[in-house]
Write a structure and sequence with these properties.
Glutaconate Coenzyme A-transferase, alpha/beta, five-stranded mixed sheet, seven-stranded parallel sheet
């Protein structure tokens, strides 16, 4: 038996091994197809490539793709080929954003923690095929994921048929980190610690659902973060100043778990923990970057829980050299746990959220420019903001060399409401909004967090407050800044 065959422990399932072309022949135009993976990790590589090639060869192939958060490599491949007719629930691809805004792609946005419920209810209709990447298949048909789990248990349960890609390039060590737990309602989820294990290392599926198995290779495509900009460094420094103040105010010996996102700012914050006095840090996140793994390997971070690990070359080296040290401290979970309101509320993490813009009361727009043009999906950000022990919003106060103020009278699109934001941090300072009235929130944000638009914000708010109301708004002016940007290329009104 070859090493590849050994990855399939069921003799009956070995007979299903076929080429990617033969497996992909089960997918036809008009189908709803679920793809595994989460962020840009653990996604299938062979089947999407075949689908794109079929479209390029002239086949009229258009599908509804359901996947976990982002999955940018698949989105870029299938989007460029014209395979995607509809996409659910989140993307971060610039190409798909252009297609959604031109209405050549139907985009159905959903919060991540809503997806398992919607899938179970049949809200998306038939899901004919699910395609997932795996390290292997157990003797009883369980699928062992690779670098991501995401929504895969829910997707596999909802799908009528399953195609499994066994990736021979993914590190087999990844199986050591999986903890897959399927909630049994109404029983509580028995998770009380970040790195606690409550589930299994594989996703149970009826073996009869698996219709084809393909061997594949190739690692996840990753893009290393760019160096942090000066304003991002200032935001990170203000965050750490706040955390130190909060630690002294509360008398807590160690921080609650930290939830970070992706991108340059998140990377700068994670790296800054190395030079801070904080130790025994824990991460409870949707996904981890290489920086998170580095801190885990060096001991600054005591434990980490996530839905995926982005395997950059640095992350792969860390897994190879520090795998034994990480075994008991790193857990990769399914999204029904990582983004679960019950679990987030119980663990009480400090969640670090970013956005495109916010208004003077703390409402957040994290997905649409000028209200209409989507740039990315919401994903799980709102899940953490709503249920966190402490919800922190971080963003630079201005954009486009000062042409845009990210603090505006009213957000043009709302993803996260003011009641889910406790603290706002920009490069200029910190606004602690806890216990404040709406009028107090507005004045604190304007005075502590705005930059060159401070006088313009003051002018608007003073006039709005004079007009009265608990939540003062001048309806004729509230979106005038966005109108000015569209017409004049700047939000400056003078």
């Amino acid at each position: 038996m070859s090493m590849a065959q050994e990855r399939i422990q069921s003799a009956a399932l070995r007979r299903l091994v076929t080429s990617a072309e033969n497996a992909a022949a089960r997918i036809h135009s008009g189908m709803t197809v679920a793809f595994g993976g989460y962020t840009s990790a653990g996604y299938p590589k062979a089947i999407p490539a075949v689908l794109a090639a079929r479209r390029a060869a002239g086949e009229d192939l258009r599908i509804h793709a359901i996947s976990s958060s982002t999955n940018t490599p698949i989105d870029e491949l299938l989007g460029a080929a014209g395979v995607l007719q509809r996409r659910t629930p989140m993307f971060s691809s610039r190409l798909l954003a252009r297609q959604a805004n031109s209405q050549t792609l139907e985009y159905c946005e959903q919060q991540m923690n809503q997806m398992p419920r919607l899938l179970r209810s049949g809200a998306f209709g038939r899901i004919e095929v699910a395609v997932v990447e795996a390290l292997g298949i157990t003797a009883d048909g369980g699928i062992i994921p690779t670098s991501a789990i995401g929504m895969e248990p829910s997707l596999l349960a909802a799908a009528e048929e399953i195609i499994v890609e066994i990736n021979l390039s993914q590190p087999e060590l990844l199986a050591e980190f999986h903890d897959i737990y399927l909630p049994q309602r109404p029983q509580p989820i028995p998770l009380t610690r970040t790195a606690q294990r409550i589930g299994k290392s594989c996703i149970p599926v009826p073996s009869g659902k698996i219709k084809a198995i393909v061997y594949s290779s190739g690692l996840d495509e990753t893009t290393p973060p760019a160096p942090a900009r000066p304003e991002q460094k200032a935001i990170a420094q203000n965050l750490f100043n706040f955390l130190e103040l909060e630690q002294r105010r509360t008398g807590m010996h160690s921080l609650p778990p930290i939830q970070t996102g992706f991108g340059n700012l998140a990377n700068e914050i994670v790296n800054s923990f190395s030079s801070s006095h904080f130790r025994d840090i824990e991460f409870f996140c949707g996904g981890l970057q290489a920086a998170n793994l580095r801190l885990l390997a060096e001991g600054t971070v005591a434990a980490a829980s996530c839905g995926s690990v982005e395997l950059t070359p640095e992350a792969l080296r860390l897994l190879d050299s520090c795998g034994d040290a990480l075994r008991k401290r790193l857990v990769i979970r399914n999204g029904e746990i990582t983004n679960n309101a019950e679990v987030i509320s119980r663990l009480g993490p400090i969640t670090l959220t970013s956005g495109i813009e916010m208004d003077i009361y703390g409402n957040v727009n994290s997905s649409h420019i000028s209200g209409s043009r989507v740039v990315n999906g919401l994903g799980g950000g709102a899940n953490f903001a709503e249920n966190a022990g402490l919800s922190v919003l971080m963003l630079a106060s201005e954009g486009k060399q000062g042409a845009i103020s990210t603090i505006v009278p009213m957000v043009s699109h709302q993803d996260i409401c003011e009641h889910d934001i406790d603290v706002v941090i920009t490069e200029h300072g910190i606004a602690d909004l806890r216990g404040k009235t709406d009028i107090e929130r507005a004045r604190t944000i304007i005075e502590n967090c705005s930059g060159s638009y401070k006088d313009q914000l003051r002018s608007y708010f003073n006039r709005a407050a004079a007009a009265g109301g608990h939540h003062p708004i001048l309806l004729r002016e509230a979106l005038s800044w966005h109108t000015a940007l569209a017409e004049n290329g700047t939000m400056r009104l003078e």
